[in-house]
Structure formats: structure tokens, C-alpha cells
Inverse folding.
């Protein structure tokens, strides 16, 4: 356990951010699963916005976000054909 005041604060801050990141990743995962069941353009824009926000907040890497968006777009196109 940390003895220094700033180290104690960092532990608290890290725990809080970990929970926030976990919640964001879980939300994205859930929405992607919903989108894959019934792909729609509205669903794509919603999931894309969630992924972009996660990448902006460094919850996920920017390249992973771009790859995920590309794969979801391909899924929508494949469903349309």
C-alpha cells in the first residue's frame, strides 16, 4: 500500500479510470454485437461514434478503432447485397 499522499491519490484515480474504461469497452462490445445481428446505417453511425469517442479518450488505440469501423462498414455492405 502507498504511504505517500500523491501515491494514494494515484491509486484512487487509476481505479476510477479503469472502471470507466471497462464500462466504455463493454458498451462498445454490446453495441457491436447488436449491430452485427441487424446491421443498419443508423446502427453503424451510432457504433462509429462510440468507437471514435473511445479512441479520442485513449480507451482504445486509434488504429484499432479505424479497423473496427472498416469491418463494421464491410458487414453493412455485405448485408445489403
Amino acid at each position: 500500500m502507498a504511504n505517500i499522499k500523491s501515491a494514494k491519490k494515484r491509486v484512487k484515480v487509476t481505479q476510477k479510470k479503469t472502471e470507466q474504461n471497462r464500462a466504455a469497452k463493454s458498451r462498445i462490445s454490446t453495441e457491436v454485437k447488436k449491430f452485427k445481428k441487424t446491421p443498419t446505417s443508423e446502427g453503424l453511425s451510432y457504433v462509429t461514434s462510440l468507437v471514435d469517442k473511445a479512441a479520442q479518450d485513449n480507451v482504445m488505440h486509434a488504429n484499432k478503432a479505424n479497423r473496427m469501423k472498416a469491418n463494421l462498414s464491410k458487414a453493412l455492405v455485405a448485408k445489403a447485397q
